[in-house]
Design goal:
single chain; 495 residues; alpha/beta; FAD/NAD(P)-binding domain; 2 domains; nine-stranded mixed β-sheet; five-stranded parallel β-sheet; 14 helices; 19% strand; globular
């Protein structure tokens, strides 16, 4: 760490302490880079797994794959891990690898500005100023909840909250509850609160595709085998990876193959819902896979309960006593908004200023762009984790993050060994990558005629990787020096 003026200059500063931030810090430290700081706006680490504590919160990727390859956990409680267990796993990783003491909690970044002369990122936070040679954004795509712009929303007299800001002080037992939205959070919430609410009204704008979730607890002997038999854990992880990776054929290459999954969806719907009118209301009117496919074995049975009512008429207003659809008012005591996140805005609302005083929001006025989803032209030594074109519809985002860790490490090593102040991806390289993504996405199921959280208001999908994850790993195996402009070092070495 070096002092510049009144600010402390660090080798690497990471924004965010979810899987991306914790994993990146661990990999940096294992590579011998100790001067690492993580800035976290909350009071605890964990990112989305800290924020989403709603009833039923769990992962829809199997636990052996939704974990770091370099930090195996053989004693997961079940195939699909619950929120609390994932959060504790992240805490364990941070403690074991000496990262916990590197986190500055309660420190929100408001602005980061690149000082070209000093080759430093000048970072402004709610707790003061600091500088960094390298800046890594690990903010993720699902950290800013969206509350819908419904007329009268603020007038509701009872408790109301977003699913990612769950109010655990509100007792739902015997209450009339409205759930707005039918996405990934809602299908986990609804079965849990349907058991205790007097009445639950689920407001659906479009029906999701929901297939059965093959979840169960791990047996004691299975955990023992995974822990003691050489290669057993790796084999389990590889088997799950291969099964999930094969789904990319339907999402990306041959959308007609989604018919195989659609049969599984129709079986789940028929088994869970006997009422033909309700069943018809739960049939999506868009191609399977165009929106996120959801996993649940208790969602459809929950909707068939006598105290649960599906409402498909559009919401026109929220009133002090409930939710209005057309001329009808649904009186409720509590409203839960399971309405998603600002997933296409990435680093907002931070102000990021690169070379020549150019703001990232200006550079991205036509949509977020980053070469390989990691580096942005005109913003030297800035690296994004889980950036544009790196989300998945079929496999584990942890696999993608580990690919990005390796690429960022390669860039940092280039700075160290090459005696460089900064590296900046060339604009023509970034533009070529963006054109390739746009061309490939046009033939995927994600652009098959629906609105989703993958998509901007103008209809462009900017979140998803249109290919196999092993292809992304190959593309990010090492940075290509020809892709970057550089400047020889005038600053101190990264350590």
């Amino acid at each position: 760490m070096t002092r510049f003026g009144t600010a402390m200059a660090h080798s690497v500063v990471i924004i965010g302490s979810g899987f991306g931030g914790i994993g990146m810090a661990i990999r940096l430290r294992r590579a011998g880079i100790r001067d690492v700081v993580i800035l976290e706006k909350a009071a605890d680490l964990g990112g989305t797994w800290r924020d989403n504590t709603y009833p039923g919160a769990a992962c829809d990727v199997p636990s052996h794959l939704y974990s770091f390859s370099f930090e195996q956990k053989t004693d997961w409680s079940r195939r699909f891990p619950p929120q609390a267990e994932i959060l504790e796993y992240l805490r364990h990783c941070a403690r074991r690898h000496g990262v916990l003491e590197k986190i500055r909690f309660g420190t929100e970044v408001t602005e980061a500005r690149f000082d070209e002369g000093a080759a430093l990122w000048r970072i402004s936070t709610t707790s003061g100023e600091l500088d960094a040679r390298v800046l890594v954004s690990a903010c993720g795509q699902l950290d800013r909840p969206v509350l819908p712009p419904i007329e009268g929303r603020a007038s509701f007299a009872g408790p109301s909250f977003h699913s990612a800001r769950w109010d655990h002080g509100t007792d739902l037992r015997g209450r009339r509850v409205a759930v707005v939205g039918t996405g990934a959070s809602a299908i986990q919430i609804v079965p849990e609160i349907a058991r205790e609410a007097a009445e639950l009204r689920l407001f659906q704008r479009s029906a999701p595709y929901v297939i059965d979730k093959k979840d169960r607890p791990y047996r004691g002997w299975e955990k023992a085998v995974l822990a003691s038999v050489p290669g057993a854990y790796e084999l389990s992880r590889a088997r799950i990876y291969a099964a999930y990776e094969s789904r990319a054929l339907g999402f990306v290459k041959y959308p007609r193959l989604m018919a195989l999954l659609e049969k599984r969806f129709r079986n789940a719907l028929a088994d869970g819902v006997g009422d033909p009118v309700l069943r018809d209301a739960l049939l999506p009117r868009y191609p399977m896979g165009c929106k996120r496919i959801l996993l649940s074995s208790d969602y459809y049975p929950a909707l068939a309960r006598p105290n649960v009512h599906l409402v498909t008429d559009p919401i026109t207003a929220v009133t002090p006593s409930g939710v209005r659809t057309g001329e009808r008012e649904h009186e409720v005591d509590v409203i839960v908004y399971a309405t998603g996140f600002r997933s296409t805005e990435f680093l907002s609302p931070m102000k990021i200023v690169g070379r020549g005083g150019r703001e990232l929001n200006e550079a991205w006025r036509d949509g977020a762009q980053a070469h390989l989803g990691i580096t942005v032209s005109g913003f030297p030594n800035l690296f994004l984790l889980y950036g544009p074109y790196t989300n998945l519809g079929h496999n584990s985002i942890i696999y993608m993050l580990e690919s990005q860790f390796r690429y960022v490490l390669g860039c940092v090593e280039a700075l160290r060994r090459g005696g460089l102040d900064w590296i900046d991806v060339r604009r023509d390289v970034q533009d070529a990558f963006t054109r390739e993504m746009r061309e490939r996405l046009r033939t995927t199921v994600w652009e098959a005629g629906c609105e989703s959280w993958y998509m901007r208001a103008d209809g462009k999908v900017v979140n998803n990787w249109p290919g196999f994850t092993f292809a992304y790993r190959r593309a990010t195996r090492r940075p290509d020096p020809r892709h970057f402009r550089t400047r020889r070092a005038t600053a101190w070495p990264i350590s």
